[in-house]
Amino acid sequence: MTKCNRLIDAGRRQFLRGGMMATAGAAVTTLAGTQEAKAQAALARVDYPASRLGNIGELTENEPLDVSYPDDDSPGVLLKLGHAVEGGAGPDGDIVGFSVLCPHKGWYLGYNADDRTFNCPGHYSRFDAEAGGQQVWGHATSNLPQFNLRVDDDGEIYAEGVDELIFGRLSNTL
Ligand code: FES
Prior knowledge:
The protein contains one helix and ten strands. The protein is an alpha+beta fold. β2 (65-68) and β3 (75-80) form a beta hairpin. The model is unreliable at 23-28 (pLDDT under 50).
């Protein structure tokens, strides 16, 4: 073998060794990335506070009661609708709670007792209180955040979570 061929052969072996090291490095990087992603997914889970929002005795059918959840900066309402609905709590399954910040740009929603919708004065989105806050019209791209409610034997109403992201937040708890 000539000197020139030996150099070419040595270069080829070096190239292959480098490729194997790069592949092994990529595998380690991918594994580390997967573990990091799992850790971040675990951190992304939100632990909600359980907060007392009111008592059944304070509610009048189809009249919103102002509350806030999961903290004082997040206005919402409790509503007793008079018949069982999606997400309804209490003995009749008719008590619901919603954020009243519009998911589009955060305007404060008003309640229309006639058709039981929340209405936005900003760009006129509407959300159905009897259908889990489903948007029925407008610019918003998500439904109205609904509180997960629990009612105890004394009629005390507790919120224990929210099913959508409240407007203006990266997380429902800050
Ligand atoms: Fe409510 Fe735009 S802020 S529709």
